[in-house]
């Protein structure tokens, strides 16, 4: 708005917008020249305003994807501060990092699972239970959304009937038959189909993080031993802690998202619940 006021004032000082400025009998060519000048001045400040709006939209998108409120000044300050810190660590400018994070978040939002089976009538848009796992260390993926942003969710089974998930406000254990997950739920085993010591180790790692606070920053969450976790970070860290070679992040970026885990070559789908 300051740019708009400044340029409007400049127009008046140039007498372009002054009432009665046009001299009697002024040529049509002169009038057209003035309109052209006005257009150039308007373009000079409208383009930066549009660019600023684009960046603001990307910040709103990131805040929403984190499950926070874009209208909250506290949430905006927290996310903006973290983006500045990430930009510094990555050697990028704030605007570059903002765009990178927004693009990565956008690419990681939920796409429909490629499944030839059609959902039963009335099975969508409802919460269901994840149900029993075949083995300890299995994981599931569901298409959770927050404020219209489909970011997905993932959790790890610590027994056949309980799983651990990182959600707001903290990491918790959940009975697998509680109707907590949006339909459908996709279940996977990690690595090999048989039960292995590493799967028990991954489950124990997840259990040891119960009570840890929630991490809103998906774009820089690849820390195994952390003070806070989000859902995909916890599942990724659980297996990474057992073997550095077991990396469930399918795209290798600085952040691991639920869809990255779903697409990992380490995970193998065995059941879909509607």
**End-to-end C-alpha gap:** 51 Å
Q: What percent strand?
A: 15-25%
Q: How many domains would you count in the coordinates?
A: 2
Mean of all residue-level pLDDT scores: 81
From the coordinates shown, what is the CATH architecture of the largest domain?
Alpha-Beta Complex
The Rg value, from CA coordinates, equals 26 Å
Number of helices: 7
From the structure above, extract its key features.
274 residues; alpha+beta; endopeptidase fold (from Nostoc punctiforme); 2 domains; 6-stranded antiparallel sheet; two-stranded antiparallel ribbon; 40% helix; 17% strand; disordered N terminus
Structural summary, described in words:
By secondary structure, the chain is of the alpha+beta class. The protein has two domains: about 1-105, no CATH class; about 125-274, endopeptidase domain like (from Nostoc punctiforme) (endopeptidase fold (from Nostoc punctiforme), Alpha-Beta Complex). The chain is about 40% helix and about 15% strand. It contains seven helices and twelve strands. The chain has helices at about 1-15, 30-65, 75-90, 95-110, 195-210, 230-240, 260; strands at about 125-130, 140, 145, 150, 155, 160-165, 170-175, 180, 185-190, 215, 230, 265-274. The strands form four sheets. The chain has a six-stranded antiparallel beta sheet. The model is unreliable at about 1-25, about 45-55 and about 110-120 (pLDDT under 50).
